[in-house]
Amino acid sequence: LDVLLNSLINGDIELFEELFSQFVLETISFYDVNTKNEEAVYHAFLLGILVSLDDYEVISNRETGLGRVDIILLHKKDKNRLAIIMELKRINKFREKTKEEALTNALKQIEDKKYETDVKNRGYNNILKMSVVFDGKRVWVKK
Q1: Measured between alpha carbons, how far is 111 from 106 in angstroms, rounded to an integer?
Q2: Element (DSSP H or E) covering residue 24
Q3: 3-state secondary structure of 77
Q4: Where would you tag: which of 32, 71, 85, 105 has the fewest CB atoms within 10 A of its CB?
Q5: Full-model pTM
Q6: What pLDDT, on a 0 to 100 scale, did the predictor assign at position 62?
C-alpha cells in the first residue's frame, strides 16, 4: 500500500495505475461493482485508501470552479508538493465507446469545470490533473 500511495503523491501515474489495478483485482469482488452506482463504490474504495496519507488533506465531492470535483489531495504543510485533482469515471457505453475516450472526457471535465480554482487559490501551483476510469474490475489512469 505504501508503494501505491508513494507512486501517486510523486506523480508516477504509470506505476500507480499498475499497482492500483492489481489492488482492485485482488480486493474487490465483481459483485461489489456490478451496480448502477459503480463509480460511487470506486470513489469510496479509493477514499478509504487515500485517508492513510497522514500528511495530506483528502477532499471529496467539494464544489470548486464550475462544478463538483471527485477527489483533491493537498499536502497539509508544503504547498510546493504535488497537489492532485482526480476525476473518476465509469465507462458508460452510451457516452464513451473506449477507455481512451472516457479518460480524455474526465480530463476535459477537470479543465472545463475549472476544478483547479480552489487549489490555486490556496497557494498550490504544482498540480497534477488525472482521470481514473473503471469498467468492472478494470482500471485505467491518465494525466
Answers
A1: 9
A2: helix 13-27
A3: coil
A4: 32
A5: 0.92
A6: 95
Q: Helix (H, G, I), strand (E, B), or coil: what is residue 76?
A: coil
Map out the domains of the chain as residue ranges: 2-142
Rounded to the nearest 5°, which phi and psi values hold at 113?
-90, 0
pLDDT digits (tens, 9 = 90+) for 81-94: 999 999 999 887 77
Q: Which residues contact 29 (CB under 8 A, 6 or more apart)?
A: none
Residue with cell 508544503: 78
**Strand segments (E) across 25-82:** 56-64, 67-75
Q: How many CB atoms lie within 10 A of CB 31?
A: 7
Closest to 114 in 3D by CA, of 77, 67, 80 = 67
How does DSSP classify residue 63? E
Is-contact 113 131, C-beta < 8 A?
no
The H or E element containing residue 140 is: strand 138-142
Q: Checking phi first, is residue 18 left (phi over 0); if not, alpha (psi -120 to 50) or beta?
A: alpha
